[in-house]
Structure formats: C-alpha cells, structure tokens
Design goal:
Strand content of chain B: 25-35%
Largest sheet of chain A: none
Distance between the termini of chain A: 57 Å
Number of helices of chain A: 20
Strand order of the largest sheet of chain B: 2-5-1-6
Structural class of chain B: alpha+beta
Number of strands of chain B: 6
Order of helices and strands of chain B: EHHEEEEHE
Shape of chain A: elongated
Largest interface: A-B, 41 and 22 residues
Number of strands of chain A: 0
Number of helices of chain B: 3
Helix content of chain A: over 70%
Distance between the termini of chain B: 21 Å
Shape of chain B: flat
Oligomer: heterodimer
Structural class of chain A: mainly alpha
Order of helices and strands of chain A: HHHHHHHHHHHHHHHHHHHH
C-alpha cells in the first residue's frame, strides 16, 4: 500500500498543480490526502479506484485551502488587488496536456529549482515527488521535524517568489536544470549510502528512495546517457553496502570487503545500464564514475582489479571535471598500477590546490601511499592529520586505527 | 552540515546583565533591545529551517562535576568558574555551507556583544576508502 501511495503522490500533485496552479497549496493538499489514505485504507479497506480516491480527497482539501487563501488575500488586500480566476485555474496555454509521466518530471524540475539551496531541494523533492512525510524525512536526515517542516514551507514560498512555473524549462535551460535534478538525487543517495551505525536503518531508506526516483527519471528519459549513468552508479555503489560496515560499525575499505556480500543483482543491472548508455556519445561524469564502480564490481578479488582501466577512466574524469578529489582517486589507481612513488607524484600535482587546503582526503590518500611505500612513521602522521580534519566520526575512527596499526609493529 | 554556535560570557558580569563587558551595566532600553533581537534571531532561524536546537545555560554556580573514581561515579559541586569565560549557551544549526554558518554566528555575536565560537558537529556518516 505504501508503495502505491508513493507512486500516486506525484501524479495527483501534478494533476492538482496543473488544474489549479498554486503548487504550494497543492503540495499541502496531497500530503493531507496521503495521511488520510494511510489512516483510512487499513481500517476501511482499499478503495476500488485508489488514484480516483486520492484525487477526490486531495481536490476537496485543495478547494478548502484555495478558499481560505482567497479569504486571507481579501482580508490583506481589502479588494485592492483582485484575485483573478485565471490565477486559480491556470494551465498555461503553452503547456501541453501531457501524461502523468511528463508531469512527474515537471514536478522534479520545480522541486529542484535553481533558486533553492541543496538542502531545500533535497527536502522538497523527498516530500513532493517521493511522497514521504515530513516526519520520515526528518528522521532520515537526523533533523527535528519542525526544522524540516519550515525548510519545506520556506522552499515552496521561495519558488513562488521567483515565479517558478509548472512547465518544462526551455530547451536552452533544460540540460542545466536536468543536471540539478540529477545532482539532488545523487545527494539523497549519498546521504543514505554514507550512513553507518545507529540511524542507518532510516537513512538507508534514502538510497532506496534515490534509486526509485532515478529509475523513474530513467523511464521518462531513457535516451539521456547521464541519467542511465547516475542510476548505474547508484546501483553499483549500493551493491557494496552490505560489505562496507564491519560488525562493530567500522568502515571496511574496498580492499578488505567480503565481495561475496556484494549484491550481484544490482551489479548486473548497473552494468547492463552502462553497457547500453556508454557507446552513445562522450560519457559524462556519472557514466564515468559508474564505469569505475563497474570495474571494481567485476573483480572477484581485490587483487584482480583492472587498475589500468580504472586509472584511464579517472584520467578522462579528471580532464572533464577539474576536481582535485578526482585527481586524488587517480593517484591511488596510478599507485596500484605503477607503484606508490608514481601515485605520490600525481598527488603532489594537487597538493597546493587551494580547494584542498584543510581537506582530509589529501592527507588520507598521502598516508595510504606512504604506507604502501613502507614509510610507516610518515604515513601514520598523515593519517592523524587526516583524522583531525575530517568531520566524519567513522572516518576519524578508521584513520586513527590505521595510524595506530603502523605504530605497533 | 551541522554546527554548534557557543557563546561565552564573564559570569560576574551576568549580575548586571552585561554579558560581555565586565563593568558594563545595561540600561533598561538596552536590555529590552537585547531580548528583542535575540527572539528575532531565533524566529528567523526557525523560519528558515536551519534551527536544530538551542539553549541558554543556568548560572555556573549550578555546575556539577561527575567523574569515575575507583570505578564508581562521584558527583561534586563546581567547578565554580574562576575563568573569565564560561559557556553561557549554545545553539545547533544545520546549514548549506560554512559561509552561511559564519554569517549566522556573526549575527549572533553582534546580539550577545561577545565572542562566539563555531564548531562543526561530527557526522556519523562516512565513506569507505
């Protein structure tokens, strides 16, 4: 039932927004219809026509909200400005009456509006498109419910202020706006994937949600290679989740993971998506990162990893992205291929980069390469420097453990 | 990302409601203005969806120290702050960037007329290496 509701939520929201305008009120109405369904269906049984039921209940609520909104405006403006009916019944002339599928995409574009900052985009997307309740999102993001509720309502107001519309962005804007949507889905995925102990149960659901939304976008835009790339990257990465945390909540590095616990079904699906997308044109960053994850996934043992291919993929990504973190990853691959000295040489090309100042990853990777080179004391010092710089508890624990291991022997 | 904003004060100055300066005694208008801007700050933070939690702390004379001695917990009164600067209150915010955290801390510092400290809160999420 929950799956059905979450599938219906964006469709009903899109229909209401298309019919009445007022995205903010429509969102509220759908949220209340969802709550009504969640409480009434288990008791009174599933209605014969769930989409119809949801639409009816949401529309009724929408009418109430519009009425009180009109009354509020009348009070405020004392008839100085009339609310024109056109504002209330505003399917813009240039919007084609498309199917539910396209509507969901329009919703995503709206929730990932560039005028919102990423935390707001994430929260609004999870609620309006994902159909999660504010309480569920708050639990997953480890925030108080009131904070999340305010964030969502502020985000909706902001969209109104900047005149965000429920329509497809211009061709010129479309690619850029799609990039934002993909980035937001990637952020949602990461939030869940990086979770470790304690709260990881709820946060892990964010991975499933991000994958569900990426699948939806992929169904709508099957010919956009970066959409396939993102979905493939999520699947190939999430496949490793059962092996990345040890029994005491510690992070297990790729080299030491029990690959038998990797999810082969997800890996196969990710690789198939990638095989389909890659030959189409020059691959973008999501496809390249997915390709790297695929090379790891194909190695049954760590020793079997095709480092030449990984180094080559990072090389392409490095040229594409101008991101020093990518260069760090390339340094690791180069070290595995040609020895730690070669890796350290790559690393030093970004050591002076302003964006790396105070970044723990630079020290973590240098520590790893120095350890490979047998320079134990220097490696331990780098791990400790990295441990001081990271704001992640499990990473700090991992780095300090590495450092301590070098001291003892 | 979450940050803690901590504000410090000279406890002896609290008696005169001057949170920062030792000698200063605030006029009733200044006191009223202080509480007004404090509420406005909290209201803005709550409205923007960046407020996680925040509290002011009781006078340091209420402090209890708890420690383990010979394997058993022992509670004792104090320490009574000889230090000029004791923790007066804290807030936790969740913001989009470090710059935004600094901006909010600066606004808070202007209201409490004293230095505030900003520290990132450790995340229980992490990436395997």
């Amino acid at each position: 039932m929950e799956d059905l509701l979450r599938e219906l939520a964006p469709q009903v929201l899109a229909a209401l927004t298309r019919r009445y305008g007022h995205f903010d009120l429509a969102e509220e109405a759908v949220q209340e219809a969802l709550l009504a369904a969640a409480t009434q269906w288990p008791e009174q049984g599933m209605p014969d026509n769930p989409p119809g039921w949801m639409t009816t209940v949401a529309t009724r609520r929408m009418t109430d909200l519009l009425r009180s909104e009109q009354a509020r405006r009348r009070r405020e403006q004392q008839e100085a400005l009339r609310v024109l009916p056109a504002d209330l019944l505003s399917p813009a002339a240039d919007v084609s009456p498309a199917g539910d599928a396209d509507d969901t995409l329009l919703l995503l574009f709206l929730c990932c509006h560039p005028a919102l900052n990423p935390p707001a985009q994430v929260a609004l997307t999870l609620r309006a498109v994902g159909g999660l309740t504010t309480a569920e999102i708050a639990r997953a993001l480890l925030l108080p419910e009131a904070t999340l509720a305010q964030r969502i309502s502020r985000a909706k107001k902001r969209i109104l202020e900047v005149g965000g519309r429920f329509r497809m962005p211009d061709d010129r804007d479309r690619a850029r706006r799609l990039d934002v949507v993909l980035h937001v889905l990637y952020l949602i995925f990461n939030e869940g994937y990086t979770a470790t102990a304690g709260e990881s149960l709820h946060r892990g659901e964010l991975c499933a949600e991000a994958i569900r939304l990426a699948r939806m976008v992929h169904r709508l835009l099957p010919d956009v290679p970066e959409v396939s790339g993102l979905l493939a990257e999520m699947l190939l990465t999430d496949a490793r989740r059962p092996a990345r945390i040890g029994p005491d909540g510690e992070l297990v590095p790729l080299a030491e993971q029990d690959r038998g616990r990797w999810n082969r079904v997800m890996i196969d699906e990710g690789i198939a998506l990638l095989t389909d997308a890659l030959p189409r044109k020059r691959p973008g960053p999501y496809q390249l990162q997915a390709a790297i994850a695929a090379v790891h996934a194909e190695a049954r043992r760590f020793e079997d990893t095709d480092w030449a291919q990984i180094a080559a993929l990072y090389q392409v990504l490095d040229q594409l992205a101008d991101n020093p973190v990518v260069t760090l990853n390339r340094a690791v691959a180069v070290a595995m291929l040609s020895g730690p000295a070669a890796g350290l040489a790559v690393l030093e090309t970004v050591a002076g980069d302003q964006r790396m100042a105070g970044h723990h990853r630079l020290h973590a990777v240098r520590g790893h390469l120095l350890e490979e080179a047998g320079e134990r004391a220097a490696a331990a010092a780098e791990y400790r420097a990295a441990a001081r710089l990271t704001t992640s508890l499990p990473e700090r624990r991992y780095l300090l453990t590495r450092a301590a291991r070098l001291d003892v022997r | 990302m979450k940050y803690m904003i901590m504000t410090f004060g000279d406890a002896s100055a609290w008696d005169t409601l001057g949170l920062g300066a030792t000698e200063a005694t605030w006029s009733p208008e200044e006191v009223a203005e202080h509480f007004r801007s404090m509420s406005a700050f909290y209201a803005d933070l709550a409205a923007s969806g960046e407020m996680v939690t925040g509290f002011g702390l009781a006078d340091p004379s209420h402090t209890t120290t708890v420690e383990i001695r010979d394997g058993r917990p022992v509670a004792s009164d104090g320490p009574y702050a000889e230090a000029k600067e004791v923790l007066a209150g804290f807030g936790v915010i969740d913001v989009a960037s470090h710059d935004r955290a600094v901006e909010l801390a600066a606004r808070f510092a202007a209201i409490v007329h004293t230095r505030v400290e900003l520290r990132p809160i450790m995340d229980d999420a992490g990436r395997e290496m």
